[in-house]
Amino acid sequence: MSRFFSEKLSALVPYTPGEQPKDMRYIKLNTNESPFPPSEKAQKMAAEAAARLHLYPDPTCSALHKALADLYGLTPDEVLCTNGSDEILNFAFMAFCDQKSPAVFADITYGFYEVFADLNGVPYQKIPLCEDFTINIEDYCHNNASVFIANPNAPTGIALKRAEIERILQANPDHVVLVDEAYVDFGAESCVPLVRKYDNLLVTQTFSKSRSMAGARLGCGIASPALIADLNTVKYSTNPYNINGMTMAAGLGVLADEAYTQKNCATIIENRAYVTAELRALGFTVLESSTNFVFAAHSGMAGSEIYRRLRENGILVRHFDNPRITAYNRITIGNRADMETLVATLRKILEEQV
After folding, report:
1. In this structure, are residues 190 and 184 in contact, taking their beta carbons and an 8 Å threshold?
2. Any residues with CB less than 8 A from the CB of 96 and at least 6 apart, and which?
3. Which residues contact 108 (CB under 8 A, 6 or more apart)?
4. What is the tens place of the pLDDT at every residue in 281-318?
5. Are 294 and 279 in contact (CB under 8 A)?
6. Distance between CA atoms of residues 83 and 78, nearest Å
7. How many CB atoms lie within 10 A of CB 24?
8. Nearest 5 degrees, angle CA 106-CA 108-CA 109?
9. For position 7, what pLDDT does the model report?
10. Cis preceding-peptide flag for 128 (omega within 30 of 0)
11. Within 13 Å, how many C-alpha atoms sit on residue 103's CB side?
């Protein structure tokens, strides 16, 4: 830290991304990327857009907003695309939270919520998950704060039903309820159908997971026109050209190929069921997941040791130091061959432990 670093940020603890090592070739099951490439339409349109990189991209993202709105049966003024869903989350903390409107979120959830709250000087409360890692929805009702809920949650993979989210919306009419649906396409109920019923609902999604665009950085917010207008005020006050031309084109391509997205999601769900059953047969506790990852622990070996042994065998998973979840590892669902290699490697590691 230099002597010039602002005192107001000196205590900031930044988010830690999943490791991207280059010392050898790994099976990467640590960052919840898709095992499938972007659709051919997305690749083709992005390549064509490369010829126009000498020009600024459309700051209004008009074509992309229309395509996304059409997909969900909405109007373009009900959506806002951003540089990854992380940007829309940061916009939300900036727009809807302050000293009079603090934030609440789970103690075990996406780590960027706490970072964005600290970055923006927002007071917040972390609400403990239940012992089984589920969310008690009553904890998020009537607490006079903006609510941030990842649904399904990460890193647990557990999802709330839409009706449970609606209960939280009804209990907080004077505060924004943000539902982060980064993993919703893998088996959870989306709250997008509720945006016209509740003017305090903001749904965020990403193209990184189900749409195979983690490297392109594209996310979106879906809400009432008034909330979207608020977020646009923040956008145009920070970075109006927030989405580059190739990403915008790739987004249009993938939205035009929804069948490809749905096929990939179905395959990931199938592979998730396979690996869940195999891990349980090996003695693992595996939480019920509605995501493209599973959260697993074994009573016979520490989570950190399993992580280390897998890494030595060329497989990366994600381990967290939080005491409540240190026994667990988060394992991305890859293709079937990767999952079979994972299971075989874990079987070997456990046999060597005996």
Report:
1. yes
2. 146, 175, 176, 178, 202, 230
3. 129, 133, 153, 155, 156, 322, 324, 325
4. 999 999 999 999 999 999 999 999 999 999 999 999 99
5. yes
6. 17
7. 7
8. 75
9. 83
10. no
11. 28
How far CA 80 is from CA of 69, 185, 264, in Å, comes to: 10, 19, 25
Residue type, 284: F
User: What are the chain's domains?
Assistant: 19-36+259-353 (3.90.1150.10), 40-256 (3.40.640.10)
Over residues 91-104, the mean pLDDT reads 96
pLDDT of residue 24: 63
Identify whether the C-beta of residue 68 lies closer than 8 Å to the C-beta of residue 88: no
Q: Tally Cβ neighbours within 10 Å of residue 277.
A: 11
How far apart CA 186 and CA 175 sit, in angstroms, is: 28
| Separation between Cα atoms, residue 213 and residue 203, nearest integer Å | 19
- Determine how β-strand 103-106 pairs with β-strand 124-127: parallel
Give the whole-angstrom CA distance, residue 115 versus residue 173.
Answer: 26
Q: Which tokens go with 128?
A: 């403990």
